[in-house]
């Protein structure tokens, strides 16, 4: 294992650290898989429902909104597709996005006890979080496909692009989560603020209701960066033209750059975090 000594006067440039982070990310594949298997088994150990917990919450949320709409308690404008498809797809995709944002912090936080005791590429923790996220998301996507066909939406060729677009969603969410991870590990308030902020942001995103035709709510939803992520994926799911496709592609490009930047910052911050944990 390469030994690296961190000094205050280190002359390693930012791009040198970025290349080292990418190299260690790929070289730590085996360790990341072991971490992911361990965490997945622990997640469902002593659980009677097992994988059902992956979609009980989003399906329950969608069902609540459907009951509210059908009972006339709330008025939902035309969504351009059957509302059950709209609600189920929105809540499931939103849960994947939230999980991808939380994954880097949770994976690193779960390994606090070994960070200061074992010398291994810390990028393995990030990669293990991605593996867990891909596993959980795959189960949710399979359920979503089943629900869509059951609810009467037939096969369309854009479904072939749907898994690739989901990977873009995961990339963007992971980039944001990784950017916040160093602060989240040092200060618990950050994680709580992120959870609260995502809960509020859900109501400014077309998760369970469409974008209004006018008003301040429309402006906030159109400029919300999470809006094109959900609308593009939902459009591919039902065979419609994505209304914010260019915006979606720009966000994925920005997410890729942010991911590389955040990975380098993570490499710089992890020795400080380990020192704080060990103190």
Descriptive report:
This protein is mainly α and 279 residues long. The protein has one domain. It is built from 11 helices and no strands. Helix 4 (83-110) packs antiparallel against helix 6, helix 6 packs across helix 7 and helix 7 (162-186) packs antiparallel against helix 10. It starts with 13 loop residues before the first helix and ends with a helix. The model has no long low-confidence stretch (mean pLDDT 83).
Helicity, in percent?
over 70%
**End-to-end C-alpha gap:** 25 Å
Beta strands, count: 0
Please give the largest β-sheet.
none
What structural class results from the helix and strand content? mainly alpha
User: In percent, how much strand structure appears in the residues?
Assistant: under 5%
Shape: globular
Topology record:
Elements: H1 14-27, H2 29-44, H3 53-70, H4 83-110, H5 112-115, H6 123-150, H7 162-186, H8 188-201, H9 216-223, H10 226-238, H11 245-278
Summarize the structure.
The protein is mostly helical and 279 residues long.
């Amino acid at each position: 294992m390469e030994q690296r000594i961190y000094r205050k006067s280190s002359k390693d440039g930012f791009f040198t650290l970025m290349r080292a982070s990418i190299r260690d990310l790929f070289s730590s594949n085996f360790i990341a898989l072991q971490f992911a298997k361990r965490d997945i088994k622990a997640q469902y150990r002593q659980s009677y429902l097992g994988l059902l917990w992956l979609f009980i919450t989003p399906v329950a949320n969608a069902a609540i909104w459907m009951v509210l709409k059908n009972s006339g308690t709330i008025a939902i404008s035309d969504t351009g597709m059957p509302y059950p498809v709209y609600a189920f797809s929105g809540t499931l995709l939103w849960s994947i996005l939230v999980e991808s944002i939380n994954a880097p912090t949770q994976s690193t936080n779960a390994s606090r006890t070994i960070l200061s005791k074992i010398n291994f590429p810390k990028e393995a923790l990030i990669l293990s979080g991605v593996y867990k996220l891909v596993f959980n998301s795959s189960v949710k996507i399979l359920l979503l496909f089943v629900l869509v066909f059951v609810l009467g939406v037939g096969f369309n060729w854009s479904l072939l692009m749907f898994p690739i677009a989901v990977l873009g969603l995961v990339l963007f969410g992971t980039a944001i989560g990784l950017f916040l991870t160093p602060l989240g590990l040092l200060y618990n308030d950050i994680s709580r603020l992120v959870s609260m902020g995502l809960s509020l942001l859900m109501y400014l995103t077309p998760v369970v209701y469409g974008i209004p035709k006018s008003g301040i709510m429309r402006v906030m939803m159109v400029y919300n960066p999470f809006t094109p992520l959900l609308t593009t994926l939902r459009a591919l799911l039902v065979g419609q033209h994505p209304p914010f496709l260019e915006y979606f592609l720009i966000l994925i490009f920005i997410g890729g750059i942010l991911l590389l930047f955040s990975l380098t910052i993570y490499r710089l911050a992890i020795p400080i975090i380990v020192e704080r944990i060990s103190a």
